[in-house]
Design brief:
82% of the residues lie in helices and 0% in strands. The chain has helices at residues 2-71, 73-161, 184-197, 205-212, 216-223, 226-229.
Length: 235
């Protein structure tokens, strides 16, 4: 059972590292997307500035043509109409090109937004799955301690029938560690004294202690390597 717990712990640590790598890749992808959006925005602004400059040029040329038409209206009337038509056509083409570029940009941005939301949803689901697996692991550890406690109680009852002194109860009776009011060093010292009075084997102290931890303290314990987790002096 302890071997299975260690294997599950290793799998959990492996999944935690994979999740952190995915989180790092997700942040890099976000930075890349932001840079691409900025580049496209600059390109759009440049194109918009070009259109506005062309429009100003067109207006200036139109004013010059109108002055020329006023000087010689009859001689240049056909030329003015043709030039005005050409410029209006060019302006419409440029406006249509800008509108097309804006639509393409909006479509690409929406597509990337949807892809980003899908990635976020997947990572959220992966994280929730990891949390469920961690709770299952904690429940399995608690069940193991209960089974050991029941086994020890059965042994004690058998010894009492023969007049032998029963073994101490092999399950923690101490209150759980509370981060808001307990000092870790003092709590560990009290735990060691209690473990010695209960005649627990030292290689089982870490298992009993883990059943009393919760919150951040339990998270730190769950991230410890197996060798360190089995040594009570590492806490």
């Amino acid at each position: 059972m302890e071997r299975e717990e260690r294997m599950k712990q290793r799998e959990y640590e492996k999944e935690q590292r994979e999740y952190e790598m995915k989180q790092h890749e997700y942040e890099k992808e976000n930075a890349k997307l932001a840079a691409e959006e900025q580049d496209k925005q600059r390109a759009f602004e440049q194109e918009k500035s070009k259109v506005e400059a062309d429009k100003l040029v067109f207006l200036k040329e139109k004013q010059e043509q109108e002055l020329q038409i006023e000087k010689d209206r009859q001689a240049h009337e056909l030329m003015k109409i043709k030039a005005q038509h050409d410029h209006e056509l060019a302006l419409e083409q440029q406006t249509a090109a800008v509108a097309k570029a804006q639509r393409e940009y909006d479509a690409a941005a929406e597509e990337k937004k949807q892809a980003h939301e899908l990635r976020v949803l997947k990572e959220k689901q992966d994280y929730e799955r990891m949390q469920i697996e961690q709770k299952q692991l904690e429940q399995e550890m608690a069940d193991t301690l209960k089974q050991r406690s029941r086994h020890t109680s059965s042994e004690n009852e058998g010894w009492m029938e023969y007049g032998a002194k029963p073994k101490p109860f092999k399950g923690p009776k101490m209150p759980c560690f509370e981060e808001s009011k307990d000092n870790m060093d003092a709590y560990l010292h009290r735990f060691e004294i209690y473990a010695e009075t209960q005649c627990w084997r030292r290689d089982q102290w870490a298992v009993y202690l883990s059943a009393l931890l919760k919150g951040k303290a339990l998270e730190v314990y769950s991230r410890l390597p197996v060798k360190d987790a089995q040594d009570i002096l590492k806490y």
